[in-house]
Amino acid sequence: MEPDGKTCIELYTTMLEIRRFEEHVAKEVFDGNIPGFAHSYIGQEAIAAGVCRHLTKKDRIVSNHRGHGHCIAKGADMNRMMAEIYGKKTGCCKGKGGSMHIADFSIGMLGADGIVGAGLPISTGAACAAKLEGKGNVAVVFFGDGACNEGEFHECLNLAGIWKLPLLFVCENNGYGVNTPAEYAMAAGDITRIPEAYHIANKVVDGNDVEAVHAAAGEAIARLRKGDGPYFLECKTYRWYKHFLSKELEDLRPADEIQAWKERCPIKAYEALLAERGVLTQARLKSIHRKTLQKVEGAYAFALASPYPAPEDALQDVYSI
Ligand SMILES: Cc1ncc(C[n+]2csc(CCOP(=O)(O)OP(=O)(O)O)c2C)c(N)n1
Ligand SMILES: [Mg+2]
Known about the structure:
The chain is an alpha/beta fold. It has helices spanning 5-30, 45-52, 68-74, 78-85, 119-133, 151-162, 182-185, 193-197, 210-226, 255-262, 266-277, 282-305, and strands spanning 60-62, 139-144, 167-173, 176-177, 180-181, 201-206, 231-236.
């Protein structure tokens, strides 16, 4: 079933906000204006947008190293996100986390993470908390195909399975971990054979089709809220940029493969579909594009105008055990 017009526009707008944000970040990283590593989510926007549209602030998500899209789709403040990426004091982690550690507990974004697979146990804990709270809230974890080859992935599937946790596993299968093809790295072959072995309901969707993701995530999250146990959604997709944004890193993926996926742009495809359905007029499209650009430029201006943390702040909010 087609989503209503309001939902369609929101799905489109969220994808566009992610794209514009990521275009800005990519340019700034390549120009040397952003410190540290940044991983681009361009190409995968339909997944964050389609899944997070079903979530409230009380639902918790956990992201990974490629996390900007998840933060935006969950409703994180773009100004504070941008400031964080530039290492500014007004950033959502006071400028100490950077691109790979954006978190905002106030909207249920428990954090991005530079350690592949590390979000899985955190989300399993969040799902356990949601179950104990008993209010029908859920947890969602976004991870890549590469993370499926980590030991903790299996531990979390098992625990979520035996405890029937309200946890949605969203595997963003972009076919590669850095430059290693998934078909080389994964003995199981099809990823969903793994949740299948743990008796976890699962589905494969086209991760570049925002309505397919939205529909599948909607069914999955409704099951979680009813207490039917975890769900595993594999979204097949592709990242447009090399693994992380850097002039030095080589991209060993075939050029024709990259080009073929660019032609399957999730945003362009949805724009065409909504125009054909009459949901998106040219005037509305222009206005969405203008406002989205203003939002990203506003976030950049906010980040530029913000101070860096003072040296004496370095040891504040830092914990060790
Ligand atoms: C435990 C661990 N091993 C290796 C790395 C280096 N590393 C960072 S991202 C990455 C690939 C992850 O691939 P995938 O999970 O498919 O996510 P994608 O980058 O494709 O979105 C690797 C190997 C790391 N950060 N943490
Ligand atoms: Mg991958």
